[in-house]
Amino acid sequence: MSGFETRARAVLAACNARGIMLATAESCTGGMIAAALTDIAGSSSVVDRGFVTYSNEAKMEMLGVSPETLAAHGAVSQETALEMAQGALAHSRAGVTVAVTGIAGPDGGSDEKPVGLVWFGLAMKGRAPVAQSHVFEDRDRAGVRAATVETALDMVLSALKEG
């Protein structure tokens, strides 16, 4: 079993145990989190939908991310990740959502926002949304994206285990 598959199976089982559905809001991973989940037979009982919102316009149109947030903080920010996760919750039947927005590289980084920086947002019904960032250093584009999928699945699993 791949690392994705092991994590994805654990997330699906945890969602099933709680009787909730899951949605993803993805930028830098382009749907890889949803793909990791839906690669597993029977995932349709848990996965509601995945939003691939690569452009700022898609983030605004599909998830309701505010133009002011994007102008003030940029697409790769705590604020945007939180709004993405909350937007996915509001625009789906999911009880838990995970959002990712980052700089996978090899270009696009800066001193303030280096290549490998990813912001994660998580929203659950009845809880305040949370965000965290990781900088996946010394990785190529594929490595940043793979590490992002693994971290996002771990984040969902951890939130579901908390209650």
Give a verbal description of the structure:
By secondary structure, the protein is α/β, with parallel strands linked by helices. The protein has a single domain, classed as CinA-like (Maf protein). Helices cover about 45% and strands about 20% of the residues. The protein contains 6 helices and 5 strands; from the N terminus they run H-E-H-E-H-H-H-E-E-E-H. It has a 5-stranded mixed beta sheet, sandwiched between helices. The longest helix is centred in the C-terminal third of the chain and has 21 residues, at about 140-160. The mean pLDDT is about 95.
Features:
163 residues; alpha/beta; Maf protein; 5-stranded mixed beta sheet; 6 helices; globular
Topology:
Elements: H1 3-18, E1 22-26, H2 32-38, E2 47-52, H3 56-63, H4 67-73, H5 78-90, E3 96-102, E4 117-124, E5 130-135, H6 141-161
Parallel strand pairs: 1-2, 1-3
Antiparallel strand pairs: 3-4, 4-5
Protein name: CinA family protein
Domain CinA C-terminal: 7-159
Pfam families: CinA (PF02464)
Short characterization:
With 163 residues, the chain is an alpha/beta fold. It contains 6 helices and 5 strands.
Under CATH, the topology can be stated as Maf protein
Measured between the Cα atoms of the first and last residue, the distance is 27 Å
Strand content: 15-25%
Under the CATH scheme, the architecture is Alpha-Beta Complex
Q: Tell me about the biggest sheet? A: 5 strands, mixed
> Class in CATH?
Alpha Beta
Supply the number of helical segments. 6
How are the strands ordered across the major sheet?
2-1-3-4-5
H/E element string?
Answer: HEHEHHHEEEH
Globally, the shape reads globular
What number of domains?
1
Estimate percent helicity: 40-55%
